[in-house]
Amino acid sequence: GDQEAGEMGLAAVPGRQAAFRQGLAAAVQYAKAVGCPRIHLMAGRVPLGADRAAVAGEMEATFTENLRYAADLLTQEDMTGLVEPINNRITDPRYYLNTPQQAAAILEKVGRPNLKLQLDLFHCQIMDGNLSRNLETYFPLIGHIQIAQVPGRHEPDSPGELNFPYIFKLLESLGYSGYVGCEYAPRGDTVEGLGWLRSYWESQGLQHSGTSKTAE
């Protein structure tokens, strides 16, 4: 969408279907060029001046229509579409898709196997908490995980509410084999800020390359 005009994705924005399809086609070309099999289909914001409850039905219908179109297109490219709930308490008050419960209901209604949930634990904690149960409940729908400490949205070992060693262990026990995206703002230098990862590898008996010492 037009970020300068305040747009943050278009998939659920009524009247912007043509622009959504144009943007999706461009995204597919970029994804093919870099070998990325997943595309985040951003829902977008409640139109400025509109009442969220009043437009909820129309936005859900638009979202459902666009997601089905996207799923059919992405199937041809062997790609997966992702939808991400973004909290509307701190990060984006007007964003349409806010909770994993809302996302799961829409994914069920759309009914396409190549559409998945992109679960950012930062947003999930702010909106709902209950991370262990939410991860277990929605695990079959999850196509990508993102992390950041709450409330500062910095490195996982920064002061905050979330116990990431526990969360990583839970993800392993659930059988998660995908990437974990570091969707945080470093407090300082990016590379120095990755010290948490080196410490985590060491605590798990891994080398910094991520390979097992015993395997070597």
Radius of gyration: 18 Å
CATH architecture: Alpha-Beta Barrel
Query: What summary fits the major beta sheet?
Result: 5 strands, parallel
Number of domains: 1
Protein name: HYI isomerase
Keywords: Isomerase
GO molecular function, one term: hydroxypyruvate isomerase activity
Pfam families: AP_endonuc_2
Write structural notes for this entry.
This protein has 216 residues and is an alpha/beta fold. It has a single domain, classed as Alpha-Beta Barrel (TIM Barrel). Helix content is 43%, strand content 10%. A five-stranded parallel sheet has the order 1-2-3-4-5. Helix 3 links the parallel strand 2 and strand 3 (115-120).
Chain-wise SSE layout:
Layout lengths: L16 H18 L3 E3 L11 H25 L3 E4 L16 H11 L4 E6 H7 L3 H8 L3 E6 L16 H11 L5 E3 L7 H4 L1 H9 L13
Parallel strand pairs: 1-2, 2-3, 3-4, 4-5
Short description:
The protein is α/β, with parallel strands linked by helices and 216 residues long. 43% of the residues lie in helices and 10% in strands.
Which tags fit this structure?
216 residues, alpha/beta, TIM Barrel, 8 helices, globular, disordered C terminus
